[in-house]
Amino acid sequence: MVGLVTAQDAILLFVFWDLTAVASYFLIGYDSHRRDARANALMALLVTGISAVLLLVAAVLLYDEYGTFSLPLLFQAAEPGALVTTAGALVAVAGLAKSAQVPLHFWLPRAMVAPTPVSAYLHSAAMVAAGVFLLGRFYPLIQTSGILLDLLLWTGIASMAVGGILALTRDAMKQVLAYSTIAQYGYVTFMLGLGGAKGAVGASFYVLAHALMKSALFLTAGAAAEAGRDDRLSRVGGLARTHRALAVGSGLAAAGLAALPLTVGFFKDELLFAAALERGSPWAAVAVGSAALTLAYVARFWVSIFLGPPQGTARAVPVALVWPVVLLGGLVLAGGIVVEPLARLAAAAGEATLGAPAPAEPAYHLDARAVNLLALATYALGAALFFTRARWAPAARAVAELGERGGPERLYRGALRGLNLLSDRIHDVEVRDLRTRVASVLVPAGILVLLGIWVTPTGGYDPGSIGTADIGLVLVLVVATLAALATAMTRLHLTLVLVLSALGFSLAVAYAFSGAPDVALVAVLVETIVALLFLGVFALLPREVLRREARLKTSRSRRWRDPLIGLFSGAVAFLVVWSALSRPAPEASVAGDHVRLAPDAHGSDVVTVILADFRGLDTLGEITVLAVALLGIATLLRRGRTT
Amino acid sequence: MILLFSGVVAVLFGTGAFLMLKADLFRVVVGMVMISNAAILALIGSGLSRGAAPIHPLPDDRLSDPLVQAMALTAIVIGFAVTALLLAIAYRVYTSHESVDLDELSREEVRRERELEREEISP
Amino acid sequence: MRTILTETVARLLVAPAFAVAAAILVKGYADVGDGFAAGVVAGLGVLLLFAAFGARATHRVLPVRRAFAVAVSGLLVALVVGFAPLLAGDPPFTHRPPPEEQVVKLGTLELISAVAFDVGVFALVLGVVVGSLDYAARVRKGDW
Q1: How far apart are CA A206 and CA C44, in angstroms?
Q2: Rounded to an integer, what distance in angstroms lies between the CA atom of residue A62 and that of residue A516?
Q3: Which chain B residues are within 8 Å of A558, Cβ to Cβ?
Q4: Do C93 and A629 touch (CB under 8 A)?
Q5: What is the pLDDT of residues A138-162, one digit of tens each?
Q6: Per-domain residue ranges for chain A?
Q7: What is the pTM of this model?
Q8: Subunit contact B53:C32, Cβ cutoff 8 A
Q9: What is the CATH architecture assignment of B2-121?
Q10: How many domains does chain C have?
């Protein structure tokens, strides 16, 4: 997360973005023995991971146009246009999916299978906030396009409505909170969509305030489930009598979320109303409606847990579960009285978002200004909603059911099943024959290369010159060619290996003739070892196995196909190598520098100096490959014994 | 010389590809070795100059390009590691399936998969 | 495969094989050959012992089972030599002594950090060659 928020580079941002997704995958799937935990973790990973790819696509699009991945430079260079709009839309979708906004919200309630502290962290601070953070980070791009702002606006409204209504219908505490998170981040998206200084500051302030209150409520849910022995709202109640501190702490947090005065939550709604009013009164009405929904479900949450008749005897709760709630509740209250520090932080964040100064002066005004009137309207509407909940509960439940029937989650499951089927089908086709797979790589690759050569002609093909000094080299290369052709003819494995080493040794001689004694030496040694390895493995196998392979007849369908594919690949390789060798690089090459600098490195053999000094990292990589190969061999042979 | 180098590389690559299409697992490994040989030869052939070995004190006439030699060395070593690993894999395939014939192996894999599917449908 | 001839040849050749390996290693930086070639030559020497006297006798003479440890320590030596300059603020693979200084020589062995790197490569390659042969031999004997 720290990496994510400090990244100044789009690619880096993408990497950290994916890292948070992967981390949350493990956190959600913490109870890995539970099937639903695994499936839901996978859902979270897929939804956020696939949308992360969109972020990458956007970054590449922007890079292609402006030639930089650096965010500040991009924001300077970007001009309004179709390209920036497209990239902005991709970024927006990525951010919205991560923030669990409608219609990509379904993963978040599912992710509630995670342990409660994880949920608290994911919701209030990390995962979900990362989504709106991304929106804020790319806001300079997004705000260039009215379409994108409208997209944010409507997504926010949809999320507020869906999240609010569903939060009212859920019985499990964490589900209520999950939908509430969707609705709350809907607010943030809505404010970003409203645009302008007030929207930006409001969004930042909202994220801050929400983090405090939502983690308190999540921890409350955990503690209450512990105390009441059940995590369903209908099965707990009256906990206020036995758990006074918990009730007070979470009450403060709940009051904050409901935007009651004297809590930091009041200001979040004040900023919301201010931003909405600036845009127009219909938007203000939307804001009031959703704030009232919030009030109603928060009240339902708190009242169901702490008031009403007690259900069974309450268990004592460890102090460690209570004091964080009280502390966070206290912070909510403190923020409601002294709002300055938070406001300054939000103003700074808003300024970074907008790229322009963004003043924010949240304060109490004891007069009949519009913002206060809206707040009063919210309280009235919310209270009305809460007290008449028996009337409209069936309707809300019907909406929830409708969403489950035809909602995006169903689409997700369908798509997953379809993809599984498709992959099975491809696997079926592919698995049947390794060699078809090789052939199906070789031939299309050859055709593609030919197309490439045809489309971008390289100019001349130079046959080169042969001097009298080259006769040895020519002869050896001819021997190598003959040996290579002979490998295709041999039947017995022993002969095959001998012909292969003949080929290797003749190539080694060719290297020696080319003025490469180092390469020749190593080639001879490697050829020896490889031949011995082949013979060693042959010695491990029963004789009949190899004999049967040697006697095997090629099937009729392959008799012509395989040599043709071989010929074709050889011809393509010929064209590629010839055209490459015909165009030597310009005169000034690194090689000259290497030759000149070798004495400075206290070495005489330029090649070994290159290996150990100039290009030492290459050598390090190479020997690492060796070590890994040894590890692989050890593992494979050991397993071979035990099974 | 260029033409000759490309010709030899082409023959190596072509026969390597041909061997990789065989059913015998060991021929596939040999094919891989040949293709990596082709790559190394192409590397050596792409040297900007051919002549004496680049060892100080330098001779008067032309030097061979040392850079491609260093790269070829790296390629040879990695080729060696890959070959050893492939042989171990081939042996492992033999111990678990009693066969080094790809046709047989793929037939068996299909058969096993069918069995698995049948078990899944009617447990 | 164990005949008097092979045993005699093996006895005669093992010591020279190690001597050649050592020579390649210490001469490596000045002339043809490097840690890799030295490692393979030494590995071939061990292989000769395997072929002539069998795995058991070889195990008695040489700590063959340590091959993996040798390989890993070689990799570590190479890593340390390669990246130690980072501690001094230099790019990786900045070798000591620097160009303008004189090299301390012990006979033909030159004390350059690049030679230490080569020794690491040598140990790794020796470990890989001997190790893979030894694993194959052990598979044969069913001796894990």
Answers
A1: 71
A2: 47
A3: 21
A4: no
A5: 887 777 777 888 888 888 888 888 8
A6: 1-144, 198-387, 393-431, 432-589, 590-643
A7: 0.62
A8: yes
A9: Orthogonal Bundle (1.10)
A10: 1
